[in-house]
# Entry
Amino acid sequence: MTDKVIVSIKGVQHEYGEDGATEMITTGNYYFRNGKHYILYDEMIPETGEQMSNTLKMSPERIDLIKHGSHSAHMVFEANTKNMVVYRTPYGMMEVCFNTFSVELEETEKNIHAQTEYALEINEGFISDCTIEINVRAKEH
# Structure
């Protein structure tokens, strides 16, 4: 894998027979250390235009998504584990829980594909079942 990558993150909320999907595609930087894949990328918040720095840390058992900025959080997805995070937004704090069912990671020389499925809860109330699909591929020069 090269140090310059293209990152695609697709999130799907499965609600009442309908799926709501969002997808972001951007460039980032990649490195591998201590058995984990690290992807650093920036993301723009549509409502404010603010640029946020994000770090993905991935291994076969766990995915960490760390957001820095006005919407900061450290989200952990680990199979058969429920993790809670306080999600800070400009509008206040929310308690968000991720009850993760599965984490999958496939890697080749030029591509990493990860997927996690989980139940999303906000302030102790069930919101929906969700899927996050992450694709990281080497950026061609």
Notes: The mean pLDDT is 90.
